[in-house]
């Protein structure tokens, strides 16, 4: 399948929020096309302080109505390093990084960066992402003239949950709080109602002792209270997605149905759960009138695309392409799929929509 891959942003392209911070990653953006034709990304920017020999520095947001950052100094002798966090008393963990969203303005093609915000455009608050906000997905409701942004809010009080914010201009946001509780991520909302209900795809985790993390659907009258939950997609055995899957991009309506790009995970060595994980992308097509009815999907033998470039294979997390938004090209013929690459960079893959549809089984 023919596709164009463009590296848009690296960490060095982003200006740190504070003088003693450094940017670890720019990744997993939400994206929308404006009336002007330009595209705006809400990119997750992950930053970390420069740690010293005696202390780990744990940043957090503390403001109630504005962005304020506090950096807690934790003596190294009272904690231990564990993979990507440091563990303090009673196995409570703190992160060395903190994430917020920056606006990245692209040209009409969606392939060239025109402007990068120099400060956070959306950040955590007390009890709403005080340890950071991550992985925005943005849905535009044409009838209501309103944007709905779901995001992962990482907090001392509520763990890793999904929250909602609404806006009419992408500048001023009404925070509505948690809509999917702890350990439920990858929430994307369809851009229209079905029989009077909003529909959202999401991925709860929990302990998963009976199955693997999979994609669910839920419905809501008001975007705040969700129910009628049911699982609709599961990882397929002996496939590129056999470990776990998660919703990726806000679905777009095509001539054949609702198209979503999602991610799947496998181990680099089949059967070896200690081997590194590889994040790849696939496509799924839902019925025009039934948002939970699958009518086409990327075959299990091969993903739509997977890590192949240096900036996808090496970074903060190796071997990752993580699709988080899809915008149609101006002529409506191509999909611009924006992804996090190696949890460090932002890329865009341009693929003809007809080629994606023809690849489904």
What does this structure look like?
This protein has 361 residues and is mainly β. It has a single domain, classed as Glycosyl hydrolase domain, family 43 (Tachylectin-2, Chain A, 5 Propeller). Helices cover 3% and strands 50% of the residues. It has helices spanning 310-313, 353-359; strands spanning 3-9, 21-33, 39-49, 55-61, 69-75, 80-82, 85-87, 93-94, 98-106, 113-116, 133-141, 146-155, 159-167, 174-180, 184-189, 198-204, 215-220, 227-233, 244-246, 252-253, 258-267, 277-286, 294-297, 321-328, 334-341, 345-352. It is globular and about 60 Å long.
What keyword list fits this structure?
mainly beta, 26 strands, 4-stranded antiparallel sheet, Tachylectin-2, Chain A, 50% strand, globular, 361 residues
Helix-strand layout with pairing:
Elements: E1 3-9, E2 21-33, E3 39-49, E4 55-61, E5 69-75, E6 80-82, E7 85-87, E8 93-94, E9 98-106, E10 113-116, E11 133-141, E12 146-155, E13 159-167, E14 174-180, E15 184-189, E16 198-204, E17 215-220, E18 227-233, E19 244-246, E20 252-253, E21 258-267, E22 277-286, E23 294-297, H1 310-313, E24 321-328, E25 334-341, E26 345-352, H2 353-359
Antiparallel strand pairs: 1-26, 2-3, 3-9, 4-5, 6-7, 7-8, 9-10, 11-12, 12-13, 13-14, 15-16, 16-17, 17-18, 19-21, 20-21, 21-22, 22-23, 24-25, 25-26
């Amino acid at each position: 399948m023919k596709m164009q891959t463009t590296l848009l942003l690296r960490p060095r392209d982003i200006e740190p929020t504070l003088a003693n911070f450094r940017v670890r990653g720019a990744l997993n953006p939400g994206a929308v096309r404006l009336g002007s034709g330009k595209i705006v990304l809400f990119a997750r920017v992950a930053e970390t302080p420069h740690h010293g020999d005696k202390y780990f520095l744990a940043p957090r947001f503390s403001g109630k109505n504005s962005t304020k950052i506090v950096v807690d100094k934790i003596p190294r002798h009272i904690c231990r390093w564990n993979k990507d966090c440091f563990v303090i008393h009673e196995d409570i963990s703190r992160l060395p990084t903190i994430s917020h969203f920056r606006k990245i303005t692209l040209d009409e093609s969606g392939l060239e960066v025109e402007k990068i915000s120099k400060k956070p455009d959306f950040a955590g608050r007390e009890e709403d992402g005080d340890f950071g906000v991550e992985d925005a997905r943005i849905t535009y409701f044409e009838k209501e003239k309103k944007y709905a942004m779901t995001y992962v809010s990482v907090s001392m009080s509520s763990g890793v949950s999904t929250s909602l914010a609404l806006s009419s201009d992408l500048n001023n946001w009404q925070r509505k709080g948690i809509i999917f509780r702890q350990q439920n991520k990858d929430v994307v909302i369809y851009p229209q109602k079905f029989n009077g209900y909003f529909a959202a795809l999401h991925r709860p985790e929990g302990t998963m002792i009976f199955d693997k993390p999979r994609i669910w659907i839920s419905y809501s009258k008001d975007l705040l209270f969700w129910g009628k939950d049911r699982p609709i997609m599961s990882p397929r055995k002996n496939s590129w997605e056999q470990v776990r899957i998660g919703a990726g991009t806000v679905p777009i309506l095509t001539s054949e149905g609702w198209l979503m790009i999602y991610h799947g995970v496998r181990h680099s060595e089949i059967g070896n759960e200690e081997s590194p994980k590889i994040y790849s992308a696939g496509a799924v097509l839902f019925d025009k009138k039934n948002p939970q009815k699958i009518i086409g999907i990327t075959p299990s033998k091969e993903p739509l695309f997977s890590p192949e470039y240096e900036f996808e294979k090496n970074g903060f997390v190796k071997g990752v392409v993580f699709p988080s938004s899809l915008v149609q090209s101006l002529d409506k013929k191509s999909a611009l799929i924006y992804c996090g690459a190696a949890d460090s960079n932002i890329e865009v893959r341009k693929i003809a929509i007809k080629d994606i549809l023809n690849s489904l089984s």
